Amino acid sequence: MITINSIKIATVYRNSLFERFSASDMSLVRWLRISEAFAERGYSVDMIVNAKSGLQPRPNLQFVPYDQVDWSRYDVIKTLFHQGFDSLCEAAGDCHPFIISKLGSVVGSSDGTDGVHFFGQEREDLFATQHRINRTSRYITILTQQSRALWESEHGRSADLLLVPTGVDRDVPAPGNSPYGATNKKIAVYIGNLYAKFQRDINLLWQKRLNRLGRLLKAKNIALFFVGPGLTDILDSEVVTCLGPVDSRCIWDYQYFADVGIVLAQGEVQHNESSKIYYYLRTGLPVVSEAPVPNNHIIQEANLGFIANYADDRICGEIQGARNQERKSFPVAPRRFLPWKPKD
Known about the structure:
By secondary structure, the protein is of the alpha/beta class. It has helices at 26-40, 81-90, 120-136, 145-155, 200-218, 252-256, 275-282, 297-302, 315-323; strands at residues 8-18, 44-51, 61-64, 76-80, 99-102, 139-142, 161-163, 186-191, 222-227, 240-244, 260-263, 287-290, 305-308.
């Protein structure tokens, strides 16, 4: 008889070498949390990862380097994002009979698809990976209805195509100490990834928009902080304080001790949801997000924040309003790293 603890799962994402594994960007956080969640439910889980340090085995969860992996040992292989499936292909594991592919973005067959912000060779490479995923994966999980509709249109597949939004940790630590230092200013924080290797157009857009927002907020005696990895070569340190990447275990205080969390859209139309919203709200931090972001409804359901028009300087007014909102406490998210709704 098949039982949960007899099922062996491999999770696959990046195949590059980590000198020290640190879940300091959201994609790594998702990889680690999904692996942990499977293990907590009783499955036997291997993260296939090349890491010299930073990962400690725990009950039901082990870490296996690529040069030791035997794909035939696994009942299920779970890949994360296009890159995870590419890593599986490079390691000759894409012939496995039971692959579940989790996607973040979905791209079209040509540039110019509304809501998709990948272009040129980068988009073409992603689309080629989607073809392989569509051909070989038993199940495909997608974040938003918009991305699902695009997949069905481009790849002609609706069967075993699952809509699985992001979510947030079930358990979070209590507040510790403020990481922002002594200040008499209100604090707005943008926690995210200013992509260094991908989506250079989005990187430049967001850096310029953070600079403009920082200048506007400074005039209102509000300090803007950026927390996360990425390329910050044109970020103006006079108006945006860059604190760099922070391990996920330490990120919560950057939310507890801020007054408002910022979410920027990628354009006037956007298919991807923003995981920031789940994380900000998890600690009761009011959120100001731009209208194109698909999962803004969670802010409205939580009644904690405001939705601003895209690229509108009046977002400062929304930020001023949000910073004065009373924080809420959401005791426990119902499922670890799965979509949740706060209790009334």
